């Protein structure tokens, strides 16, 4: 039974995969991709309990490898990640493009043009060319469902992993979708195939040659059958005057182009963008006088079209960085923009901040204090705690990628050592529990192995917080909601080789404990680890959390008779504390009673 | 259908993380869908959840292309916070309407005393555009739950836009029923009251 619903692109991908009959999905959470698996794990058949087994992997490489294994094992499988996650998963990906699949395999890459919540805006369409993956690009939620579903068929038909390339605006925009039923696939049997799946040089050389034939076949499909199936389309103008304008576009950029050029242009709307159907583009180009290519980020299509000798206007007018919208396209092409109003009053910025009661604040408060007294360097990582770089704490020196803090801290220490500065500056790293388990473990191993002298702080808030509270191997629960074994982080550090007496486990909201641990670690030789163990303020406590951390909730209050307006509490950067020129108050609605302000107040004015 | 749905209508809901803009957008989108429009709704997740500015964009027409609203394109802005109304003014059509919650949430630079919450926002906006001010916080407090502020504002906004000829169709939508479908059972009664309160 078909149902009409308003779904996000992510919800639609989940639905498409569900309908395609997949049996396995894995992911590491990352905005804007996270909700795909959260939704997929919840989808159920109305008649029975037929659902898709989904899991969180510690990182994207592991997720893809598990999906490849499931595919070799004979079932349809999917792996989802944010754009930078594909960098982590690139190793198995490139070889999987040689070996191909048994059950259909789809990798969803959710790119983030405009960097709404990412450290870069790399264009992952380039991965399709580099690894030679069939690529589909949906432009709205209906296509997200349809293309996701189709992707599994194409994967099996061409014996290739398929890259389903999404962007933030496709992932997080809702549009109307017709959903269908889950198909029942026949049960498969496992067949061993060494020549296909053991990528030794001898086998890989054969597979590499076969890949050429596969690309040829996929190209033929992109030029012909993809149009017959409605994946790619030519849209004729409904009204016309003067020069015939043609627009080539894909993904959400097509929606912007459609608004900007209106119904007087013809469109070549491509759903399948690797291999790029140059013959079809050639035919389209012949029907128009001026040809534009409207695409977000890199000139991915433009360079291939130009290389084929087709004259096209692209990045000479359309911006190459940032997110597009209809307005930007209109202005770039026609020099027109809508009238808009401005006020003489300026709005004050509203940057994101660590939550009131965030356990990271206590630790960062001490690091901020320390960096005022003596030279220290703090290598940061990806998570909520990257906000520790924001004023007033400003307690971070670097942030590049997942798991990079511990290893870059080690490199920085080596730089100081080689220039005779190692006694003058202490190097710290800060990394969340989920990020440590993602790719921080190898880095810590490297530091110990290569005799580093760094203090590595693992901010264990008992959950993957930044992406919205996902379980991880340290929390004791799976994505499907089952109890499971927890990684023992202190024991793990010990087995890597960190001296047992140099592993400090503290409550970061206790400022004395934090300070003592930092001071103790600074006096130690070699690699030290401080584990700040306290749940994220947004976490729904598990039974274990309740026992370990209690559930008592109080609210702090300023005694304005005692308050001397020293503003030390304001310096914690807690958003519940309001300084209004002549008094300080605590907003009872946002305070979570962490007592940090109480601990820093020199006048006992906070109760 | 007799109404002209070919030109896309654009509504922006702006506020601060945690103010309930997303629930209000869900109800509004469902209403527009029930009225027969094609609807697209876009929101930004991620960093914005940590007390930053949040926005939800809704576009509706016979056939909607872009899910996002450019500068000077919004027919209606529902601002859940005063300074956010100011921030998003450049997205409003000069002939558009603003529904402004008479409510201040100071941002971090203001909390730190590095900046002052701007004064005279409402007077300035009223001078420039068709701006309606709602004391949604007080109204919600009187209903017994400050969190219902979002639905108080939504109700006020829906009544304001259904006066236009093109959107009269919204008067026929059973909003109470939509609230019942979307909101958790224990909050249905409160939210229905809130919807009609302003």
Describe this structure in words.
The complex is a heterodimer of chains A (607) and B (198). With 607 residues, chain A is of the alpha/beta class. Chain A has 21 helices and 20 strands. Chain A folds into 4 domains: 221 residues, Thiamin diphosphate (ThDP)-binding fold, Pyr/PP domains (Rossmann fold, 3-Layer(aba) Sandwich); 102 residues, Rossmann fold, CATH 3.40.50.920; 190 residues, Rossmann fold; 56 residues, Alpha-Beta Plaits (2-Layer Sandwich). In chain A, helix 1 runs parallel beside helix 6 and helix 15 packs across helix 19. Chain A is globular, with a radius of gyration of 27 Å. Chain A starts with a strand and ends in a 7-residue tail after the last helix. Chain B is of the alpha/beta class and 198 residues long. Helices cover 35% and strands 22% of the residues of chain B. The N terminus of chain B is likely disordered. Classes of the chains: A alpha/beta (607), B alpha/beta (198). Chains A and B meet through strand 8, helix 11, helix 14 and strand 19 of A and helix 1, strand 2, helix 2, strand 5 and helix 3 of B. Strand 8 of chain A pairs antiparallel with strand 2 of chain B, so a sheet runs across the interface.
**Based on helices, strands and strand pairing, what is the structural class of chain B?**
alpha/beta
How far is it from the N-terminal to the C-terminal residue of chain B, by CA?
31 Å
What integer is the average pLDDT of chain A?
A: 96
Low-confidence stretches of chain A: none
Q: Total strand count of chain A, please?
A: 20
- CATH architectural name of the largest domain in chain A: 3-Layer(aba) Sandwich
Number of helices, where a helix is a run of at least 4 consecutive DSSP H or I residues of chain B: 8
Strand order of the largest sheet of chain B: 2-3-1-4-5-6
| Overall 3D shape of chain A | globular
Q: From the alpha-carbon coordinates, what is the Rg of chain B to the nearest angstrom? A: 16 Å
């Amino acid at each position: 039974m078909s149902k009409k619903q308003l779904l996000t692109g992510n919800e639609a991908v989940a639905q498409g995969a569900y309908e395609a009959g997949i049996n396995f999905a894995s992911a590491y959470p990352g905005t804007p991709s996270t909700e795909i698996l959260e939704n997929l794990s919840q989808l159920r058949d109305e008649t029975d309990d037929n659902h898709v087994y989904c899991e969180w992997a510690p990182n994207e490489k592991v997720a893809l490898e598990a999906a490849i294994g499931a595919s070799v094992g004979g079932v349809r499988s999917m792996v989802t990640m944010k754009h930078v996650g594909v960098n982590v998963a690139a190793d198995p990906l490139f070889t999987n493009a040689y070996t191909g699949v048994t059950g259909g395999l789809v990798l969803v890459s959710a790119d983030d043009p405009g960097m709404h919540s990412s450290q870069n805006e790399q264009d992952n369409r380039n991965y399709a060319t580099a690894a030679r993956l069939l690529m589909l690009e949906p432009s709205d939620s209906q296509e997200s469902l349809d293309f996701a579903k189709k992707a599994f068929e194409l994967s099996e038909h061409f014996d290739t992993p398929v890259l389903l390339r999404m962007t933030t605006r496709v992932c997080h925009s809702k549009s109307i979708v017709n959903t269908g039923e889950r198909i029942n696939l026949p049960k498969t049997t496992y067949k061993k195939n060494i020549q296909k799946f053991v990528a030794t040089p001898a086998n890989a050389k054969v597979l590499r040659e076969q890949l050429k034939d596969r690309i040829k076949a996929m190209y033929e499909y992109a030029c012909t059958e993809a149009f017959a199936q409605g994946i790619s389309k030519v849209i004729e103008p409904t009204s016309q005057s003067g020069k015939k304008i043609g627009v080539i576009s894909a993904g959400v950029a097509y929606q912007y182009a459609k608004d900007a050029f209106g119904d007087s242009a013809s469109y070549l709307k491509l759903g399948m963008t690797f291999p790029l159907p140059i013959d079809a583009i050639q035919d389209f180009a012949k029907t128009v006088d001026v040809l534009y290519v409207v695409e977000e980020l890199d000139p991915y299509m433009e360079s291939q079209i130009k290389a084929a000798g087709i004259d096209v206007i692209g990045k000479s007018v359309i911006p190459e960085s940032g997110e597009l919208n209809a307005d930007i396209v209109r202005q770039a092409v026609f020099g027109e923009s809508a009238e808009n109003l401005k006020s003489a009053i300026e709005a004050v910025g509203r940057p994101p901040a660590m939550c009131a009661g965030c356990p990271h604040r206590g630790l960062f408060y001490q690091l901020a204090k320390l960096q005022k007294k003596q030279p220290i360097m703090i290598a940061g990582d990806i998570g909520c705690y990257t906000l520790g770089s924001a004023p007033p704490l400003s307690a971070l020196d670097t942030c590049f990628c997942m798991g990079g803090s511990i290893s870059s801290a080690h490199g920085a220490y080596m730089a100081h050592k080689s220039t005779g500065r190692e006694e003058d500056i202490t190097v710290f790293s800060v990394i969340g529990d989920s990020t440590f388990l993602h790719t921080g473990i190898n880095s810590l191993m490297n530091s110990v192995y290569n005799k580093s002298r760094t203090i590595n702080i693992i901010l264990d808030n008992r959950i993957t917080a930044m992406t919205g509270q996902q379980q991880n191997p340290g929390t004791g629960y799976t994505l499907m909601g089952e109890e499971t074994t927890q990684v023992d982080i202190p024991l793990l550090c010990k087995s890597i080789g960190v001296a047992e007496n140099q592993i400090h486990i503290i409550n970061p909201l206790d400022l004395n404990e934090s300070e003592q641990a930092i001071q103790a670690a600074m006096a130690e030789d070699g690699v030290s680890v401080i584990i700040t163990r306290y749940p994220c303020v947004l976490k729904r406590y598990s039974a274990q959390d309740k026992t370990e951390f209690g559930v008592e909730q109080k609210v702090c209050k300023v005694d304005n008779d005692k308050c001397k307006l020293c503003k030390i509490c304001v310096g914690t950067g807690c958003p519940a504390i309001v300084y209004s020129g002549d008094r300080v108050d605590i907003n009872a609605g946002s305070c979570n009673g962490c007592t940090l302000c109480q601990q820093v107040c020199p006048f006992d004015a906070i109760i | 259908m007799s109404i002209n749905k070919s030109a896309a209508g654009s509504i922006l809901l702006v506020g601060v993380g945690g103010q309930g803009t997303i629930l209000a957008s869900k109800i509004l989108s469902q209403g527009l869908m029930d009225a027969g429009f094609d609807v697209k709704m876009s929101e930004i997740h991620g960093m914005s959840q940590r007390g930053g500015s949040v926005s939800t964009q809704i576009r509706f027409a016979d056939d909607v292309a872009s899910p996002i609203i450019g500068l000077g394109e919004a027919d209606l802005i529902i601002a859940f916070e005063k300074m956010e109304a100011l921030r998003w003014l450049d997205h409003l059509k000069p002939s558009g309407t603003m529904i402004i919650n008479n409510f201040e949430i100071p941002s971090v630079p203001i909390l730190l005393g590095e900046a002052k919450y701007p004064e005279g926002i409402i007077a300035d906006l009223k001078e420039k555009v068709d701006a309606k001010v709602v004391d949604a916080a007080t109204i919600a407090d009187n209903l017994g739950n400050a969190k219902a502020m979002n639905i108080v504002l939504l109700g006020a906004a829906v009544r304001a836009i259904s006066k236009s000829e093109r959107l009269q169709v919204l008067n026929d939508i059973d909003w109470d029923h939509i609230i019942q479908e979307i909101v958790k059972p224990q909050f249905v009664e409160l939210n229905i009251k809130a919807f009609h309160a302003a």
